[in-house]
Amino acid sequence: MPAFSCIFFCTIVLSVMLEFTPLNPILKPLRLKSSACISLNRHMTKISTEVSLMRNALIILLSTLALVACAGEEEMASSAPMPAAPLSSDEVLANVQAAMGTENLSSITVSGRAWSIRNSFRQTRSANPPWISRDEIMHYVRTIDLAAPASLASGDTYVQNLFYDPQYPADYTQNITAQDMNWSNQLNIWLTPWGFLQGAETNGVSVSMMDGDTVLSWISPENQTSPSGMRYTVNAHINDDNLISMTETWVEDDFMGNMRVSAVYRDYEEMDGVMVPATSEIWQGGGAIFGVALLAADANPTNLTALITPPPGGGRGGFGPPPGGAAPSPADLIEEVAPGVYHITTNYNSLAVEFEDGFIVFESGGFPPRANAGIIMEAVASVSEKPITAVINSHPHSDHTPSLIPMVSAGIPLIVSENSVDFLRMALSTPRTLLGEDTLNPEFQVVPDNGVMVIEDSMNRLEIHHVPNIHTDSMLFAYLPEHRLAIQADFTIRADDNDNTLPWQGQNRIVQGLAIYVDANGLEFDTLLGVHAPSYPQDSDDVLMALPDPDFVAPSPF
């Protein structure tokens, strides 16, 4: 307690104690009135006076001791360590720059080895991470010019196409020029530890706490905004050693809305005076899509211009002008191929099946999303006033999902495979503020894993089969037994130059898997339509041409 309060309290207590000390009751009765005892009375009065003086002296002594004690107490309290004031954002940034060794860093070249998920993000075999199929990148080298900013990465790799033909050698290149203001490209610079610190130095930084971590943040310049006009945010999580352990940002994606992209950094080592993470990974959609193991670094390389300049070589030519003439109307693109069954021709074909209460559409079209979805909706409206009650997503690859957005926006439920529903729910429920759009509220109907969903009334029977394969374990195949008709996506049957279906040895493993499924389940159809239109009419016999020889041991579809 404060010294004054302590002294005052102790003095009051002592005074009360001495006022009622047992000595007073003893002395008072001895104050006699008789003349015979005057001498004794005077003597006792003297004693009483001395006792009173002693009492007062005792009060002073004890008060002094209390003062010393209380003063010591206050001194001890005032000498206790006070909580340190939180560091400012500039102080935190300076500490991180010092720990990272980047105070004078303007460019850096790193080298080692890397990997990328096979066939790119959202073209993976499974919708949900982890995505284990990877293409290794040897002799990986990357140079970053922080002042520009620009980046050039290269390496040697072997790749495999979507149909799992044999791998072939290829060059890996990632070139981000200073003129490229596209955030989806530039973020690959800003998410590096050195890029983040450069961006923080240039754009200003703030500090906060998030899940117990110190987090530095900065936002993109005013002239670099999303379609909605929002500026982009970049965060960096700082560990106890003042090193960057994770960075993150959000970029607009037509399908996934505000798509989070993050980078995780581990195993820092000092290389050429700069702290370099020996291992790192880029994450999207909840899983790692790219990883690097660094072995060496060169800070501020003297040959920066040569390192940041891509080798000569012709880039891909631009697209030619669109074909002349007016585009056909949606009503001209829909054709009845069986009673109550309509084929809709777009760049990704669809099939609309009529029921008593409306239409179920297999596949919603490709790019551009709104145009293709609009064509499908208008085409169906041109033959009936019934609504579209559901859309079947054949599988969640990036080229088969963009037109789902307008369908979900219109409140149309999606029919999807069980093993893709978690990913699709996550992707379609993400906020879309960077696009300037409202958050979607998707509704799903689920085809069980390795099962069949049957939709049937007096008009039609539609069977939706889950046929997992090495291309995607989420593939759905539509079959209308009464019309002996089916439609597939990406089960592309191969033929020779004369449109003769090749035997099983000439078919890819995806079609071989479909042939095994069709044969095992006794599916028979005279017409096999394709989301990617076949070059000639096909039926179940063409599919069964891909059925492997009985002595052939089929590889696992996974």
From TrEMBL:
Domain Metallo-beta-lactamase stretches: 347-547
Protein name: Metallo-beta-lactamase domain-containing protein
Organism whose genome encodes this protein: SAR86 cluster bacterium
